[in-house]
Amino acid sequence: MRFVVDGMLGKLTRWLRLLGHDVEYSNNMEDKDLIGIAKKEKRVLLTRDFQLYQQAVGKGLDALYVEGQTEPERLAEISKRFSIRLEVDMKISRCSKCNTIVKPIVKEKIADKVEKNTLAHYDEFWMCPKCEQVYWQGAHWTRIGKILEKAQELLRTKS
After folding, report:
1. Residue 129, C-beta contacts closer than 8 angstroms, at least 6 positions apart
2. Contact indicator for 93, 18 with CB cutoff of 8 Å
3. Which residues contact residue 24 at a Cβ distance below 8 angstroms, ignoring those fewer than 6 apart?
4. Roughly how many angstroms between the first and final C-alpha of the chain, as a whole number?
């Protein structure tokens, strides 16, 4: 899926990119810019601004007014509406910072970019070819898994 997301949904942007979705985001875009991108690039507009949502729908754009208050609620809501899988697949994951698909990289090539302790404890790494951000499934991975599990649980209970 391809999305354009308003400035109120920065965390959701990172989640969607992690899940492999192409997300255009800037926290300082004007409403007209968001609508323009959605129209020109055929992206779904995700917003917490009801007026912006109404404007987009009025122009015939695919849009979702995101009502969830927590990340699991928001992920479940989007998953339900767009049939998005709530599972991370690093083959399609995107950089949370710049939206580029991350690539596997041997740890020797990123030794100068991460802590020595991280190198000692982890073997699989991915790097963004554009901004060179390095990713690995570290201690935070448990928290990521729990949030996705909670979103899946919400999906099951609301279906």
Report:
1. 100, 102, 103
2. yes
3. 2, 3, 4, 5, 37, 41, 43, 99
4. 22
Nearest-angstrom CA–CA distance, 5 and 10: 8
Q: Which residues of 93-116 are buried (b: 16+ CB within 10 A; e: fewer)?
A: bbbbeebbbbeebebeebeeebee
In the DSSP assignment, the letter for residue 114 is S
CATH tag, 1-159? 3.40.50
Distance in angstroms (rounded) separating the CA atoms of residues 137 and 32: 38
- pLDDT digits over 88-136, tens only? 999 999 999 999 999 999 999 999 999 999 999 999 999 999 999 999 9
DSSP letter string, 25-63: E-TT--HHHHHHHHHHTT-EEEES-HHHHHHHHHTT--E
Give this prediction's pTM: 0.95
